[in-house]
Design a protein that fits this description.
globular
Length: 509
């Protein structure tokens, strides 16, 4: 049941009416009921056994950790919960990565290799999202940030809350406990703002993303017949498609939850205004970055090995360099985890992980050189034009990394990159070839207008909430804008043959 489908809209509408009709003390119970129904109707009904098992183990493990006073036993309890949850995730999503890697190495190193057969599992909806959410809960109990939840059903709702299980954001129990289980009265402003955000998400996905995907698929599915600038152009389009698709689905999720009176954490903050790769990842998939920073990066730095590493390296490299090596090593583990989370294939580990680490570490190491060059050429880094240069540079670097993300595989990505740098075809800029990649002139006009609207709204978001700004405007002006957007989505949304907006890029996570 994809969240842009008519079935979902009907399901959502009926749920909202019933949600505000049941006794307020029963609202969270009703949310649990419809979340289970949504999960059961989104795939094989037996797949609910996975979140049931994960959340049950986490529930009893957290209670044991809270009640136990012995530090070692508490750590063993935490380890058991983490291993059980990550074990399920690894088997379902990453076991084949090891098999693929072994087969590839065996084929190169052995004369008569014994290849392993890959395994195929039915994967439950949102397994990566709910796994990280419930792990954050047990970590916070272990660190005594929050008490263990006494009601299993409440923890189960937190784990499979139906809007977030589709594509995130990754929640934390300490932030959601009061919001999710409080009584909510129908509030016209909150509900209308939630509906506005849903509409904005539909605009991003149906009008922008579903057109860009045609261009991207035309080139990437037949890249051997497209070279040079065609691959560059499709890659830039994919970056915009990925953003409009993922952030659009998050807009719908946050809007749906807001209609129920539950505010979820933001996951995007206009990332294309970022001036560096570090800033980009602070604005892109914010909840994933925050989770990995708090539960992977900082705990790694607090381990005995990393605490003692600077002292071991200091005699040879000096104090400053020793600290940098330690930090960069921990960052490598962090970014490897980021890449691994995005998918069980090396193209994800490289594109979303290791390349990002190279960008960040390389940028920091080269900063003294850039500083000298700016002084030599008298470049003022505080000017508007230099900021624009930084934004464009960040966009291009991320687009290069996303080429791996969207390619058929790591070797395919390398072939496409080699094609870019070995083929010189500037005539594609003037012969109209770039505009003949699956879209007609009407679609290009609609796409350009829509991207311009997205850009204008993104600029306005730099100053604060667009919905709050809109709420302060004259009611006639406000409704003209909203109806214009609604009819633009209805009339200009892409609903071509084989169209399935439900298949979001991140939905399988």
């Amino acid at each position: 049941m994809g969240i842009t489908s008519f079935r979902f809209l009907l399901f959502f509408a009926v749920s909202v009416v019933l949600y505000y009709s049941v006794p307020k003390r029963c609202q969270w119970v009703f949310l649990l009921l419809i979340s289970v129904i949504y999960f059961l109707t989104s795939g094989n009904v037996l797949l609910i056994m996975y979140p049931l098992a994960s959340i049950t183990v986490t529930y009893f493990g957290a209670k044991f950790i809270e009640q136990e006073e012995d530090h070692k036993r508490r750590k063993w309890g935490l380890s058991l919960v983490v291993v059980c949850n990550l074990g399920i995730l690894v088997v379902l999503k990453y076991l084949n990565l090891g098999i693929y890697t072994y087969n590839a190495l065996a084929g190169r190193l052995q004369e008569h290799p014994a290849f392993l057969n890959t395994l195929h599992f039915l994967i439950p909806l949102g397994v990566s999202f709910y796994t990280l959410s419930i792990l954050s809960y047990v970590f916070d109990v272990y660190y005594e940030i929050i008490p263990a939840e006494k009601n299993w059903a409440k923890l189960f709702l937190f784990g499979i809350y139906f809007p977030t299980i589709i594509s995130g954001p990754i929640m934390r129990y300490k932030d959601m406990r009061e919001k999710m289980f409080s009584e909510h009265t129908f509030d016209y402003k909150i509900v209308t703002q939630g509906l506005q955000r849903i509409l904005w998400g539909f605009f991003k996905i149906l009008v922008i993303s579903e057109r860009l995907v045609i261009v991207v698929s035309t080139v990437y599915n037949d890249f051997e017949n497209y070279d040079g600038l065609y691959i560059v152009f499709a890659t830039l389009c994919f970056t915009l498609q990925l953003y409009s698709n993922f952030s659009g689905s998050i807009d719908i999720v946050l809007g749906v939850s807001q209609v129920f009176g539950i505010m979820l954490p933001e996951n995007f903050q206009t990332p294309f205004f970022s001036k560096s790769i570090q800033e980009f990842w602070r604005r892109w998939h914010i909840t994933l970055g925050g989770w990995l920073k708090d539960y992977v990066f900082y705990p790694i730095l607090r381990t005995n090995f990393f605490m003692g590493l600077p002292g071991k390296l200091k005699p040879r490299f000096g104090k400053k360099t020793a600290k940098k090596i330690t930090t960069f090593s921990a960052l490598f583990i962090l970014w490897f985890a980021v890449g691994l989370w995005h998918g069980g294939a090396w193209k994800y580990i490289i594109g979303s992980g290791i390349i990002q680490w190279i960008y960040i570490v390389g940028g920091e190491l080269a900063e003294p050189i850039w500083t000298k060059l700016r002084k030599l050429f008298r470049v003022n880094k505080d000017t508007k034009w230099f900021s624009i240069f930084q934004m464009v540079r960040t966009f291009l670097l991320m687009s290069f990394a996303f080429l791996f993300f969207n390619s058929a595989g790591f070797s395919t990505a390398l072939s496409m990159i080699a094609n870019i740098f070995t083929t010189w075809n500037p005539e594609a800029l003037i012969n109209g070839g770039l505009l003949q990649l699956g879209l007609d002139i009407k679609d290009w006009i609609i796409l350009m207008i829509s991207l311009s609207v997205l850009w204008i709204i993104s600029i306005r978001q730099q100053k604060g909430s667009v919905r709050e700004w809109l709420a302060d405007k004259n009611i006639i002006f406000r409704w003209i804008l909203l109806y214009a957007l609604l009819f633009w989505v209805i009339l200009m949304g892409s609903y071509g043959p084989g169209y399935s907006a439900a298949e979001f890029i991140y939905q399988g996570f």
